[in-house]
Amino acid sequence: MGLFSNFFDRFKAADFHISPNMKIKSIQSEFKNNFGLTLRVYKGKVLADPEITFAQLNKLTSKDVKTNSSDLVIKANMTISEFEKLVSDHFGITVQVANEFDTYNVNNKYTLGQASRREDVEDWVKERGFSSLDAWLESENCKTLEEWYEKNDK
Prior knowledge:
Blueprint (H helix, E strand, L loop, with lengths): L1 H10 L4 E3 L5 H12 L2 E6 L2 E2 L6 H7 L11 E3 L5 H12 L2 E5 L13 H5 L2 H9 L5 H7 L5 H8 L2
Antiparallel strand pairs: 1-4, 2-3, 2-5
């Protein structure tokens, strides 16, 4: 699965565009639709208000947000680290990629495509001695990750 998926991530058409005049919530929604992951956008060290645009964010932070930058094209074969640095360099904005449930930041070594396929979770359960995500979920008496997060969200 991984080798072919990673190969095809390189040839996919542009997966995601970020435009400086978009509202943060629109960027986050499109990111979620494209990758199934959560995009956290920060104003300094605090999460930014999703109702504002990058231009409005620029007025609320001491960091210079580059609102005149061109659109940014994101591909599934970029590592999380490359993506986060690219957004920072291009727009002057801090972002982090979290899992689909927004419960943890995905390890920067994975590509957006790998994280969207939950390869980070598969690796995590294998490191704990389980043969697959399904085997781990069974040991937790859950049928899906959604069910596990609901049971463990306190």
